[in-house]
Design a protein that fits this description.
Belongs to the KhpA RNA-binding protein family. It comes from Peribacillus muralis. It is found in: Cytoplasm. This is RNA-binding protein KhpA. With about 80 residues, the protein is of the alpha+beta class. The protein has a single domain, classed as GMP Synthetase, Chain A, domain 3. The chain has three helices and three strands; from the N terminus they run H-E-E-H-H-E. Strands 1-2-3 form a three-stranded mixed β-sheet, covered by helices on one side. The two termini are about 20 Å apart.
């Protein structure tokens, strides 16, 4: 799942080497935390959050086969 997130986001940003995805696994969910260069935040969020919503939709669909709920957080 980390590779999927990195692949999608790296194509959208100006600084692909600064894309970092970490994960926290809990008993009932997995939280992926995406961090990018400060100048790329607008490209990841998009107008009215549309790009972020699209990324989350793809990630949630890819993880639907797992038994745990998947969340994607975007941090600075």
């Amino acid at each position: 799942m980390k590779a999927l997130i990195e692949t999608i986001v790296s194509a959208l940003v100006d600084f692909p080497e600064e894309v970092n995805v970490t994960s926290k696994e809990e008993s009932d969910r997995i939280v992926y935390i995406l961090s990018v260069h400060k100048e790329d935040m607008g490209k990841i969020i998009g107008k009215q959050g549309r790009v972020a919503k699209a990324i989350r939709t793809v990630v949630y669909a890819a993880g639907s086969s797992q038994q745990k709920k998947i969340y994607l957080e975007i941090s600075e």
